[in-house]
Amino acid sequence: MTKAITENRDVIFSTLCHLLEELFEIDPNRVTLETTFEELDIDSIDAVDLVVRLHDLIGRRIPPEEFRRIATLGDVVDVVQRLAGE
Amino acid sequence: MERALRFLATVISYLVYALGSLGLWSLVYPATCWRHPPAMRSVHARRLSRRAFRFFVAWMRWTGVWEVQVEGMEHLQGSGRVIIANHPSFLDTVLLFALVDDAVCVVKPSLAKVPLVGRPIRCCGHIQAGDSQSLIPAALTALRTGANLILFPQGTRTPPGEPWRFHRSAARIALEAGAPLVPVFFRYRPSLLGRGQRWYHVPARRPQVMVEVGVPIDPAIVSPDLPLSRASRRLTRKLETLYAGWERGR
Predict the structure, then answer these.
(1) Nearest by CB to A45, which of B136, B227, B230?
(2) What distance in Å separates the CA atoms of residue B180 and residue B193, rounded to the nearest whole number?
(3) What is the least distance, in Å, from the CA of A84 to any CA of chain B?
(4) What is the pTM of this model?
(5) Which residues of A touch B136 (CB under 8 A)?
(6) β-strands B127-128, B103-107: how paired?
(7) Could you report the average pLDDT of every consecutive run of 10 residues in chain B (250 residues)?
(8) Closest chain A CA to residue B135
(9) What ipTM describes this predicted complex?
(10) Which of A7, A86, B143, B145 has the most CB within a 10 Å radius?
(11) What DSSP character marks residue A72?
C-alpha cells in the first residue's frame, strides 16, 4: 500500500516536471519536491495555465483556495494525489 | 538664480496639477459626463484627461521646469496598441497620458487610494493590476474597444542602471490580443521625481527628458505555435534585451 502511494507520487511528480518543461521551459533536472514556484519564476498567470493543464490531466478541478496555498512542487503533488484518490 | 526660479515654477506647477485635477474631476467631468451614455463615459473621461495632461506638459515646458524631446511620435498614433515603457520617474505617466490618445493604463492597486489620483483612475477606467486573472481579460477588453494600453512592465518606478526584469503580463496581453507592442524609452538628465525623490528636489540644472518611441513589435515574431506561457517568456526576454541595449546606447 505504502509502496503504491510512493510510486504514485513519483508518477505525478514526473508528469508535473514534463508540464513545467512544456509550459515554462524549465529543465526537469533543476527541480525537486522542495523547489518553490518563486524560485522557478512562475507568476500567477503561469499558475493559471498550470492549473488548466492539471485539470485536463486528472479530470478534476483544483479549487482556487486549494491552489493559493501551494508554494512548492511537493504541494502540487499532494493536492493532485488527494484529488485523484477521492 | 535660475534654480530658484525653477523651484518657484515647480511649486506653481504642482499647484496647477493639484487644482487642475481637482477642478477637472469634481467639476468639469461631473458637469459633462451626463451627456454621454454610461458605456462611453470612460472614453469621455480619457479625452478630458489627455487634454489636461497636454496642457500640463506644455505648461512645465513653458515655465522652464523641464525640456522634453520626443522621437518617433508617429509610432504612438493609432489604436489598440500595447505601449510599454521604463519607469524612472512619476512624470513618465504624465508624458504618456499627454502623448497617447484614448489611453488605458495598468496601475498599481495602491494608487486608487491616493487622493487626486484615485478618482481619475476610476473615471477613466484604468485597470488595477491586482490579480492577473482579472487583469488580462480587462486589458483585452480595453484593446478590443480600440483603447491603447499603457503598461510599465517593471511594475513600479525603477531607477536607471538596475537590471531589466519585466513582468510578463505586457507580452502576454499583446500575444493574446495579437496587438502591436510599442516600446518607449524615457531618459531624464538629471533624474526628476524618481523613486525616493521628493517633489521639492529641484535638480541643479534643468532636466532634459528624451522620449524615444521604438518601432512597433509584432508579437508573432516569437514562434506562433508555442504555448502562450512560453511565447510570453521569449517575448519578454526580447523586450528586456531591447531596453538593455537602449540604456547602453547613449
Answers:
(1) B136
(2) 30
(3) 25
(4) 0.89
(5) 45
(6) parallel
(7) 86 92 92 90 94 94 91 95 95 95 94 90 91 87 96 92 92 95 94 80 89 95 87 95 89
(8) A45
(9) 0.79
(10) B143
(11) B
